[in-house]
Specification:
With 670 residues, this protein is an alpha/beta fold. The chain is 36% helix and 23% strand. Strands 14, 18, 19, 20, 21, 23, 24, 25, 26 and 27 form a 10-stranded mixed β-sheet that branches. Helix 11 (367-377) packs parallel to helix 12 and helix 14 (496-512) packs parallel to helix 15. The longest helix has 31 residues, at 30-60.
Length: 670
């Protein structure tokens, strides 16, 4: 392995292990600890569907060149298998431990064969389950059914009159995964597959049941869309979505006790080899634990209490306020409803002439979508750039696009070959015979649900420099115009990388001239080779570098002679760290940027991203406080030591700092 760059896939698995470790943190409420187990499972599903499937495609194509870390695709697949199997076993061990703790709270996972529940479970099976499922006993007239991705299935070995056969039960998505039985003060949790196994003889009468096992396959989920050859991108993606569920099997999770005969049968009929098999000693697919969060409010985090923005009140004219001073806030510590309200006001304001915005991900029943449609119906020019290729949100984005077009909005789908990942909105308003531009820029999506669980930063300004940049930005997205002059915005793939490199180079110059030089970067992922090497160069020159990288991190800190001046931490807590900030000391003229981009080749080279310089003094001060407190977190932070993460802890007898909890309990950021 390369001694300068950590492998991307290995780094991601390390991140997901940090997520899983939150399930062991006794400072987290008990049901929240279960939720972290579910998040770990959901993350791992997506990892296999996208990253591992891509590695198998490379192997199938005969590609065997090593990556930046020195690993070939084949070596990466082997390393992933080893680490993923270890993590799966660890996950089951933690779940077993938490089940014991749940019993103290009167929550149980009993054996479905327990006589106490016989009548109740039989009623559930006969009334709720049996009418929905359809067992297929495979023979010449009953071919093997298609096994869909990420659905629990059951394989049953049977005999009748000494003849051996196999029956398959593929559980439909409409079937509940868990059933909660309440008796007195106790809650008993049963999984649907266990109930079926307990009553399998009622389903397959006339057969002798030899064995019942569970399995689940994960299929390739990457869309195969060639935009250049597609006249209608929307139709192409709709077609590709229907094919996604039928992709190649990337992983097969099977009960640890499944007989070899059953496994060989599945390998042949479903189409996978033994190298893709993961034996599970426990319940397959623990994402069902999301469904337990309503059991006891006292075992969850307290309800989110957001700090109001003191500068706002019901009588305030929002546009006059923005002209007076820019508005900035930090999700989820402040409410994102301000943005939804701003768009709603713009929709009904007779002086608003146009609304333009990008939409990468939003939520079902979005107020923002409704306001945009309302604005168009009132005759305003509404232009929306919808990113149809936002992974796993494609179907929802197609629905928005159709609804917005029907309302009279101008809807486009970005630029061929690039995802539109920037988050920007422009409101154009006529005021006293002149045009005023109001711009909203964010590090996170226009999603009113995730705004309560992701940390992000929002900035709303009437600064005409940013307004002109935003106008150029939308002209580029919708008209493919090429603008050369930008003021405070930098756009990928054209300027963002170059700007970051230039800013690092400037810090190197300051350091070499004997001046103080500092860089702080807070992003989700850092894996770009040029940026990593430039940071190594800066470290060698004496620049003090602090990196807050939640997930994938390819850089190796604290390597003597390479990265002595680089520190890396990852914060994993109640909220998903998503805010992206870049800070450069710049000889004392400190410069701050917020951005939608991570420092990865895909973001810098093949996506449309925005990075905006912040010049407002109050906002810069808040960003400084945000970064400083994040860097002193010693409760939820992990520090990277060369290529291994170590959980930080406060010194004995000293109260620790959980930065997320601190921001929840303080309004100092605004």
């Amino acid at each position: 392995m390369n001694n300068k760059i950590i492998n991307r896939e290995v780094s991601w698995l390390n991140f997901n292990e940090r997520v899983l470790m939150e399930a062991l943190d006794e400072n987290n409420p008990l049901l929240e600890r279960l939720k972290f187990i579910a998040i770990f499972s959901s993350n791992l599903d997506e990892f296999f569907m996208v990253r591992v499937s891509g590695l198998y495609e490379q192997i199938d194509a005969g590609y065997d060149k090593p990556d930046l870390s020195g690993l070939t695709p084949g070596q990466k697949v082997q390393e992933i298998a080893t680490r993923a199997k270890r993590l799966n076993d660890l996950q089951q061990t933690i779940f077993a431990q938490l089940k014991q703790e749940l019993e103290k709270e009167h929550i149980f996972f009993p054996d479905p064969s327990d006589r106490e529940f016989r009548d109740t479970l039989e009623s559930i099976f006969l009334d709720d389950i049996m009418p929905v499922i359809s067992p297929v006993t495979v023979d010449t007239s009953h071919p093997f059914p298609f096994i869909y991705s990420r659905r629990i299935s059951i394989i049953v070995e049977l005999t009748r009159n000494t003849k051996e056969c196999v029956s398959l039960i593929a559980l439909p998505e409409t079937l509940r995964r868990i059933y909660k039985v309440r008796k007195r003060r106790n809650v008993y949790i049963f999984m649907v597959e266990d109930i079926i196994q307990q009553h399998i003889s009622m389903l397959l009468k006339g057969y002798e049941i030899k064995n019942v096992s569970f399995f689940r396959v994960t299929r390739d989920a990457d869309l195969d869309v060639t935009e250049e050859e597609s006249e209608d991108l929307l139709s192409s993606i709709e077609h590709s979505l229907s094919e996604r569920k039928r992709g190649e099997v990337i992983r097969a999770e099977v009960s640890s006790g499944m007989p070899q005969e059953s496994l060989r049968f599945l390998e042949k009929m479903v189409g996978f080899n033994k190298n893709r098999v993961y034996f599970v000693n426990g319940a397959i697919d623990l994402t069902f634990l999301f469904g337990l969060c309503d059991l006891k409010e006292s075992l969850m985090f307290p309800p989110l209490k957001q700090h109001p923005l003191a500068i706002l009140n019901d009588k305030t004219n929002i546009f006059e306020l923005i002209k007076e001073k820019p508005i900035y806030f930090f999700r989820p510590y402040n409410s994102f409803s301000l943005v939804a309200g701003l768009i709603a006001n713009a929709a009904k304001d007779p002086d608003v002439l146009a609304i333009k915005m990008t939409l990468y991900r939003t939520n079902k029943n979005s107020r923002i979508i409704a306001s945009l449609a309302n604005a168009a119906r009132q005759g305003k020019q509404v232009s929306v750039v919808v990113e149809l290729k936002a992974r796993f949100d494609e179907e929802r984005n197609i629905e928005w696009a159709k609804n917005l077009e029907e309302a009279g909005c101008i809807v486009t789908y970005g630029i061929v070959g690039m995802k539109i990942h920037a988050k920007c909105m422009l409101i154009v308003r006529r005021e006293e015979e002149r045009i005023v531009r109001y711009t909203h820029i964010a590090t996170g999506n226009y999603n009113e649900i995730t705004a309560n669980i992701y940390t992000d930063i929002d900035f709303i300004t009437a600064d005409d420099r940013i307004g002109r940049d935003a106008t150029q930005f939308f002209n580029y997205l919708m008209g493919f115009t090429e603008e050369k002059k930008w003021s405070l915005m930098k756009i990928a793939p054209f300027m963002l990388r170059r700007t970051v490199v230039e800013m690092i180079d400037k810090e190197i110059e300051f350091a070499k001239s004997g001046q103080q030089a500092k860089i702080i970067i807070k992003i989700n992922s850092l894996i770009d080779e040029e940026i990593i090497n430039k940071l190594y160069e800066a470290s060698d020159a004496g620049v003090q570098i602090n990196l807050i990288i939640r997930g994938i991190c390819g850089i190796m800190p604290k390597v003597q002679g390479l990265s002595d001046n680089i520190r890396v931490i990852s914060i994993i807590g109640r909220f998903l760290e998503h805010a992206r900030i870049l800070y450069f000391y710049h000889g004392g003229a400190e410069r701050y940027f917020i951005t939608s981009a991570d420092l990865m080749p895909r973001n810098l080279n093949w996506r449309v991203e925005l990075m905006t310089e912040i010049t407002d003094a109050a906002f810069k001060q808040s960003l400084n406080r945000y970064l400083s407190l994040s860097l002193t977190d010693n409760c939820k932070a992990w520090e990277l030591h060369v290529d291994e993460y170590v959980k930080l802890a406060p010194p004995e007898g000293v109260k620790g700092l959980n930065s997320q909890e601190h921001f929840l309990n303080s309004d100092e950021l605004i």
